[in-house]
């Protein structure tokens, strides 16, 4: 019988402030609430996904940094969360130096994939929250992943960055990970009252037909509040528009199985 390998989604956008970590945390929480064993890998040196799940970063050991560069096993670094089916591989500021340290290592693009191999069989989904860049950490995520999920804020420069990102995904597929595909683009921080948001939405559908999730994530106060309480939005306010939207996105991701 073939061993089941978790579906690994890299949540990627080289622009900051587009709802990337919010999407990674709340999609992971949604999958966990659907009773799918899920691992969230915080690959961002800012460690926002780690604090967003209520894990205190000071004095953390081991973290994803030690897993990538210190040969600590991933299993030792993985921690539980408030949700029974959600585990976290945390990050902290140590990861800032990882981009430089990785350059000198053999198989540097494969470090995350190799580190996760012993643990993925315990999960249905692995969600990787990437840093806001296309450096070696993000390349590691793309090599470890089988699908890419792109949060896209409906603003003026969105399409410019998206084209560059999709070129990078194509290069990684050609050279490092032939199995990599794009799961879809998620429109985030959407404010339907502005003509710009509506225009960007229409343009994205025009340029990338069939690649956009139906669910649109709205601008929502509860979504921005939840991380300060160390909770996914579903545990902060289940009835909020933000919570409902991420549960809808979770349903779409599960339908893509």
List the helices and strands and how they pair.
Elements: E1 7-11, H1 20-33, E2 38-42, H2 48-52, H3 64-69, H4 74-77, E3 79-80, E4 86-89, H5 98-103, H6 111-116, E5 125-129, H7 136-144, E6 147-153, H8 158-175, E7 181-190, H9 195-207, E8 212-218, H10 221-225, H11 233-236, H12 241-255
Parallel strand pairs: 1-5, 1-6, 2-4, 2-5, 6-7, 7-8
Antiparallel strand pairs: 3-4
Helix pairs in contact: 1-12
Question: If you had to describe this structure to a student in words, what would you say it looks like?
Answer:
The protein has 257 residues and is an alpha/beta fold. Helices cover 41% and strands 18% of the residues. It starts with 6 loop residues before the first strand and ends with a helix.
Describe the structure using short key phrases.
257 residues; alpha/beta; Rossmann fold; eight-stranded mixed β-sheet; 12 helices
